Amino acid sequence: MSLPTWFNLKINAPHYVYKPTSRLIPASVPSKLNQSYTQHFECPNSLIPPADQNVAAIVFGDGSNSRLYPLTKRRSESALPIAGNYRLIDAVVSNCINSNIRKIYALTQFNSASLNTHLSRAYSSARIGNEALVEVIAAYQSPEGKGWFQGTADAIRRCLWVLEEYPILEFLLLPGYHLYKMDFQELLEAHWSNRADITVAVLSRTRDNDTEFGTFQLNSENQVIAFKDNPDRRVQNSEKLKDISHDNFASMDIYVVNKDAMIKLLTEYHPLANDFRREVVPGAISLGMNVYAHKFSGYWDDMRSIEAYYRANMESIKNTNKAYCSLYDKDSPLYTLPRHLPPTQITDAVITDSVIGDGCFLNRCKIRGTVVGMRTRVGDGAIIEDSVIMGSDTYQGGRAEEDIHIPIGIGEGSQIRKAIIDKNVRIGKNVKILNKENVQECNNEANGYIITGGIVVIMKGAIIPNGSII
What we know:
seven-stranded mixed β-sheet; 35 strands; alpha/beta
């Protein structure tokens, strides 16, 4: 879904009551945006600026220790395609829009060209007065700070001169590569009601893989009394579960931070800290600051591995409450770049339990349980099952393309099962990508693919010759 027109929106802005603590506490949290907009309007007018807007979101475009290679060889995690038409960062930005947050900074660094282009094209036309809804701040060097951002805390510290230009009271810190649907107003309401300096979002239930971002120990009033980091996700599940008791909750790496507290923590108390989660938050707890937690019970996945990425795409097909399914939720729409592509053309194909992106050509093929991305071409007799096909950035065409022996897409008679096919891949005729030997791990980048967790990943732009068997 492209951004809606905001011209006729009614925005319920908060009013504030002065408290003796000298903090501004909202007397009422802004309601969600009126949803009576034209959802297919693709050239939004200027946003009506909400009065007393006091929250800005800071979205981080990439993280550390990602296990999404080779999907991240030429792009950051946040730029990964998801569910046919979208990118991962669209989910986070959409959460902000649907939560009435009107100022979003995207801090980007590694492999950020694709992400920066997407953000500027998708959201630059939505503006509050003269300011863009999303402002991209790419890593830069200055006389005060040379070299790359050294971590989330370092990135925020070096961008404070930009962040302090607006009358912001709270910052919402968000990884751009997580997949979830959250009303941030509930998080902000908890933050304000507790008069917290920092509020952390935690998962209200535990899973085997929930502890990568550490656990917070809470008291009966949801105040954080301790934090335990777990940088090594490879420990045994039984060992991880020992650390999770009834008063310990897994971090989502999402924070609301009071602006004054942020400045003091980054410039006075921890001027050399690089990582916000591992250094600044524990430091705030040890200093006796008011650090509280807000429990979240919805779907959430950190999308930091090939297996997690594959699973999330497969769940987007299902129409259940357990998945990030609601691509069709009218109350929480998912926005992205309008591409003005034609409808998908289907010729005598059999398609079941699948999601099909825009502008595809599906010819007499069989597709089951698969996410098919934009501009995908599938030849006659091809069979695709339980896979993620990212599609193509361009259409075939022109004299130069006619000379290419294997065109972009999936050739006639090819079979694909439990695979991720990155963008612009050329799969020839009668190719079999089935992993019949059930290989769990294999690195064959020289021939354009790897296998991880039993999932075959065909690398971006790879050419798989006719008759190949993987």
